Amino acid sequence: MTGTTTRPRATRAAGLLDWRLLIGVAVVGVLLVASLFVGVYDIVGAEDGWQMFFITRVPRTIALVLAGAAMAMSGLVMQLLTQNRFVEPTTTGTTEWAGLGLLATMIVFPNPPLLVRMVGAVIFAFIGTMIFFAFLRRVTLRSSLIVPIVGIMLGAVVGSVSTFVALQTNSLQNLGVWFAGSFISVIEGQYEVLWVVVLIVIAIFVVADRLTVAGLGEDIATNVGLNYNRIVLLGTGLIAIATGVVTVVVGNLPFLGLIVPNIVSMIRGDDLRSNLPWVALLGVGIVTACDIISRVIIMPFEVPVSLILGIVGAAVFIALLLRQRRAGAL
Amino acid sequence: MALITAAPHAPAAPREASSPRRSGAFPTPRAARRYWLVVAALVGLALLFGTLLISYANPMPLGTRGFWLIAQHRSVAVFVMALIAVCQAVATVAFQTVTNNRILTPSIMGFESLYRAIQTTSVYLFGLAGLVSFTGVWSFVFQVVIMMALACALYGWLLSGRFANLQVMLLIGIVIGGGLGAVSSFMQRLLTPSEFDVLTARMFGSVSNANPAYFPVAIPLVVVSVAVLWAMSRSLNTLSLGRDAAVNLGVNHRRTMIIVLIAASALIATSTALVGPLTFLGFLVATLAYQFADTFDHRYLFPVAALTGFVVLSAAYFVMNHIFYGSGVVSIIIELVGGTVFLIVILKKGRL
């Protein structure tokens, strides 16, 4: 009784701002500065260099930050709500739904303004995500791996609808260009809508704890006094807005929401509150790195960032799967 | 005491005369009769649509040389449909049995993305001339070999060893497909619109993509693969009880699985290289076949699935050709219907 000395419990550093995070911010900051100065146009030597700097480079870098953080956090929220590590907007068909919404507005309104396109994409993304969640709630799963497979097949169905519509309206090649995520077209006056995403990121930070509890399942969440359905609706809404806006402005960023949260939780465990800034940061870092690669790989031309992300993301995803397989966790 | 001892000769349930005492594919004679009626109906429909496709709206008067030329030309398309139906149906049924899952289809394994990537690359590197010259038997063989190589690499790597896991393998196949899709869509941006139009025709499954020159390669492949699967149908019947039961009953589970997967991949690869991607056709056909045949026995399932596949394909082509005049979108219509059925089935089943 008296022999035991009560030591304070060793708590993991769960502070939101520890020195590691500052280092991470510094590294990503360096990447962003590099993004400001990488490109074909000589902004230092040319006459209108500074103008060009503020017309394209600054907006592009801001867009990288916003889109990267938003998509990575959307993936995290989705993984919490579905209690499944392999879920993100690419593997649930959310992106395809957003694309279909975009196409729908193009047909209903000729030459719609950006805002109308976005609203269409967001509404469709929301409907699609809700349909997927409804699936998950009606269907009992024997394995967590079936979820992404079903989601991808669902996405294929939606994608074939889009393809059919695009064929009829002779806009298939354009469709491919829209959907391939790229920051090429991000210039002043074209991207300001992306600032909406800041609100989403803040909202996710605010409701992080509730999302964590919701991630424990409906029964537990209800037991601790949470309105489960409301939080699922809220989470889906946030995901849909983020995905819709990013799809319309930038395009499809494959696998981002999948690899970032998985890498963070592998290294840091599953404390959502202290992981959130890391997820946002890593999302920004990966998108920025891929975008810089996409700009320099075939100078003076660019490749869409979705190409780089698709290849890198596929490789990381497969590595994650194999690692889990080895651990026998599946 | 006599009350408790069971009568040694309990009256047997009335059976049909001379039927041996065994539980076959059909529990009752009624089920067997129903099965043969279904088969007869399917054969009737298949013959109907097949002959309609060959002879309907033929501009030449019956019996002239022109009539026969047109009929000959059309019968090639009908034959291709039959071949594709057999490929997709048999492969999907076998695949779903091995994976013990009636939701999956073998075509999501990345074959389609591979096909699209190969086609896009040939246009991208060599322009339209490349696509036109990339139609010989060798290109067909090349595509089938590449797809088979991918499949065998995946199976050999992921289904052997201590950590064999089928679902991990499927997901990796899908993800590889996604990565290939990103590469294809990038190359497609760089094509001129006219190149893209020609490529688009190849991107959707259509029987007009098939070239009779491929038959000497395609037909033996299909025959051998189907024969292998047919010969294994008793093992497949056992496998459908699940892995543990099958192992208990003396089936070498892993070996059977790998052989079946390779045969199924050969069928899907042949079908994809012949006419292009058809994602949900196999799923649609297999799901219908389970309803129609209502038996677990693969010797009875395979023919029904193949017949159903032919009826679905030929009916879709007939309706789209002669009623809606839109033969180019047949595969997309099948995708939509199949995809919708897929979703309904998931929701109705309530488990995966």
Automatic annotation (TrEMBL), chain A:
Entry-linked Gene3D superfamilies: ABC transporter involved in vitamin B12 uptake, BtuC
Primary localisation category: membrane
GO cellular component: plasma membrane
Topology with respect to the bilayer: Multi-pass membrane protein
Residue intervals passing through the bilayer: 21-41, 61-81, 93-109, 115-136, 145-165, 171-187, 194-211, 231-264, 276-298, 304-322
Subcellular localization, as worded in the UniProt entry: Cell membrane
Source domain of life: Bacteria
GO molecular function: transmembrane transporter activity
Keywords (A to Z) from UniProt: Cell membrane, Membrane, Transmembrane, Transmembrane helix, Transport
Biological process according to GO: siderophore-iron import into cell
Stored SUPFAM superfamilies: ABC transporter involved in vitamin B12 uptake, BtuC
Family listed: Belongs to the binding-protein-dependent transport system permease family. FecCD subfamily.
PANTHER family, per database record: FERRIC ENTEROBACTIN TRANSPORT SYSTEM PERMEASE PROTEIN, PETROBACTIN IMPORT SYSTEM PERMEASE PROTEIN YCLN
Protein name: Iron chelate uptake ABC transporter family permease subunit
Biological source species: Propioniciclava coleopterorum
From TrEMBL, chain B:
Species this chain originates from: Propioniciclava coleopterorum
GO BP terms in the entry: siderophore-iron import into cell
Xref: PANTHER family: FERRIC ENTEROBACTIN TRANSPORT SYSTEM PERMEASE PROTEIN (PTHR30472), PETROBACTIN IMPORT SYSTEM PERMEASE PROTEIN YCLO (PTHR30472:SF19)
Membrane topology category: Multi-pass membrane protein
Disordered: annotated segments: 1-25
Name of protein: Iron chelate uptake ABC transporter family permease subunit
SUPFAM superfamilies linked to this entry: ABC transporter involved in vitamin B12 uptake, BtuC
Keywords: Cell membrane, Membrane, Transmembrane, Transmembrane helix, Transport
